[in-house]
Structures are given as structure tokens and as C-alpha cells.
Design goal:
The chain has three domains: about 80 residues, Winged helix-like DNA-binding domain superfamily/Winged helix DNA-binding domain (Arc Repressor Mutant, subunit A); about 100 residues, D-Maltodextrin-Binding Protein, domain 2 (3-Layer(aba) Sandwich), CATH 3.40.190; about 90 residues, Periplasmic binding protein-like II (D-Maltodextrin-Binding Protein, domain 2), CATH 3.40.190.10. The protein has eleven helices and twelve strands. It is globular, with a radius of gyration of 21 Å. By secondary structure, the chain is α/β, with parallel strands linked by helices. The longest helix has 25 residues.
């Protein structure tokens, strides 16, 4: 009978973080270890599996064929481990957790996540605030939030831990909105919205004139304006409603944006740490098993 090997879950977790961060150095920053220690852990995992998982060069970390096959299995393995531990320790965690998130991301991704967390952690009181990213960052600095999900530029400041990457698209009632004479009518949230900033930067870089025809901090208000044909807007692809059109002609291309999880300075309390870990795990599952759009989106 062949000798069985037990996988070291710490090594598996390190592998997943390297895959997420696409860098040994950034993975080390998240896990509190040096780059060389992270590399050593991955090599130990490869030795256990007797397969090469990552192809390395000075600038990139790329999954090998065996790494691609192992990645979803590694996620399932750690998810089972984390769910077991969370269930056993749920009664030990209590207190209030103040979470901030952008409205559009919270609407699509967080209701089921937070509902499941509340059921499994009945002694934790959740308080959720939806706002623009810069306002959420201000609340974190002021101590009014414990953790927040924020929008960030992929090549911008390395804020928090990346949990989601969003392809952005132009959205409108139909292509006739784009063909109208005069400046392009823009529907957006007020500054300092990341999507508004991205839309304006892309239009100005392409030499396309524009004017704000409808400004609302509410996603519902923006969608109503788009359905009324008042202009075009920038949304994550998965947030584009089925009754609106994704526009590609005569509009500049948009780069992806990212969602990151960031904690208050000085460290989070145990209840906030538990919610942060729960959100990271749940959003990882959603990447593998996308959720249907909620009604009205």
C-alpha cells in the first residue's frame, strides 16, 4: 500500500495567497513573512505534491498546468477547514463590527455573505455603511469603521488586500445615446466616485467632450436615469442590467478596477477579524460560482 502524505494547510494557504497576489513579495506582506520564506513554503508544497505549481521569473509568477489543476482543489480544501473552525469557534466571538462598502458592490455581493455570517455568529452585531470609497477611507481614519471594502486602481496605492477585480463597461439605454450631437451625456455618482473618475479620464484622454446630465449617489437613481435615456455610465460588467446595453462603439476602452479589503489602523478586534476572514473566503467562492443578479439590477 502506498504511503499517504498529509498536505500542510499552512503551505496550501501560502500558495493561494501567492496566486491571488501574483507576487511572492506581496504575499509575504500579507502573511507577515519574508519573500524567501514564502518561496520556501511553495517549494515544500511542490515537494509534497511532487509537481511544479508555479513558473517563476524575476517579474511574474504564473501557474503551471499542474498549478491550474490544483488551485480549485486548494480552495475547496481550505474552505472546508475554515468553515469547520468557524463553526466550532462561532460562540466564542462577540461584539459589534462596523463594515463599510460601496453600494453597488454591496448590493450584488454582500447580502448573502453577511446573512450567513450573522446566522453563524449570533453574538456579533453587524453595522453596515454604504458610501463612496474616499468617504469610507475617511471613516476608517476617524475610527468610525472597523473594516471596509473599497474600490482602488490596479496600479494605484497598495491599499488593503485585493478581494475582487471588476471589468468595467460603458452602459446606456442603446447606442443612439452615444451618437447624439454634442458632448457625451454622462450619468454618474458625484465626485470622488472611482467610476466617475475613470469615465472622465478615459473620455478626456481620447479627446471626447462630455457633460454631466445626471448625478446621483444612489445606484438606483443612476440606473433610472440610464433607463430613461439620459446618458451613459460606467459600471462593472456583472452589474449591467439586462434591459440596458453594453456600449463598445465610439467609446474609449476602460481598464479594470479592483475591490480591496482594508482594516482600521491599530488592528481589528476579534469579531472584525472573523468577519474579514469570512468575507475573503466567501468572495473567493463567488469568483468560482458567480451569483445571479438581484432583482432590479
Amino acid at each position: 500500500m502506498p504511503r499517504l502524505t498529509n498536505l500542510d494547510l499552512d503551505l496550501v494557504r501560502t500558495f493561494l495567497v501567492v496566486c491571488e497576489q501574483k507576487s511572492f513579495t506581496r504575499a509575504g506582506g500579507r502573511l507577515g513573512r519574508s519573500q524567501s520564506a514564502i518561496s520556501l513554503q511553495v517549494r515544500r508544497l511542490e515537494a509534497q505534491l511532487r509537481q511544479s505549481l508555479l513558473s517563476r521569473d524575476p517579474r511574474h509568477v504564473v501557474l503551471t498546468e499542474h498549478g491550474e489543476a490544483f488551485l480549485p482543489q486548494a480552495r475547496r480544501l481550505l474552505r472546508l477547514n475554515d468553515d469547520i473552525l468557524a463553526g466550532l469557534a462561532a460562540d466564542d466571538v462577540e461584539g459589534e463590527v462596523r463594515l463599510g462598502a460601496p453600494e453597488d458592490f454591496a448590493t450584488l455581493h454582500l447580502p448573502s455573505v453577511l446573512g450567513a455570517f450573522a446566522r453563524s455568529h449570533p453574538k456579533v452585531a453587524l453595522s453596515v455603511t454604504c458610501d463612496l470609497t474616499l468617504n469610507l477611507l475617511d471613516r476608517l481614519r476617524e475610527g468610525a469603521l472597523d473594516i471596509a471594502l473599497i474600490k482602488r486602481e490596479p496600479l494605484g496605492p497598495d491599499l488593503g488586500v485585493r478581494v475582487w477585480r471588476e471589468p468595467l463597461v460603458w452602459v446606456g439605454l442603446d447606442s443612439d445615446v452615444v451618437r447624439r450631437d454634442g458632448p457625451l451625456p454622462l450619468v454618474a455618482a458625484p465626485s470622488p466616485c472611482v467610476y466617475r473618475k475613470r469615465a472622465v479620464a478615459a473620455l478626456e484622454a481620447s479627446g471626447r467632450s462630455w457633460r454631466a446630465t445626471y448625478t446621483s449617489p444612489s445606484l438606483a437613481g443612476q440606473l433610472a436615469a440610464l433607463r430613461g435615456g439620459l446618458g451613459v455610465s460606467v459600471l462593472p460588467r456583472e452589474m449591467a442590467p439586462d434591459d440596458l446595453t453594453i456600449l463598445t462603439e465610439d467609446l474609449p476602452q476602460l481598464q479594470d478596477t479592483e475591490i480591496a479589503l482594508i482594516k482600521a489602523r491599530g488592528g481589528a478586534l476579534p469579531a472584525a477579524e472573523r468577519l474579514a476572514d469570512y468575507i475573503l473566503s466567501a468572495l473567493d467562492r463567488q469568483r468560482l460560482e458567480p451569483l445571479p443578479k438581484p432583482a432590479g439590477i
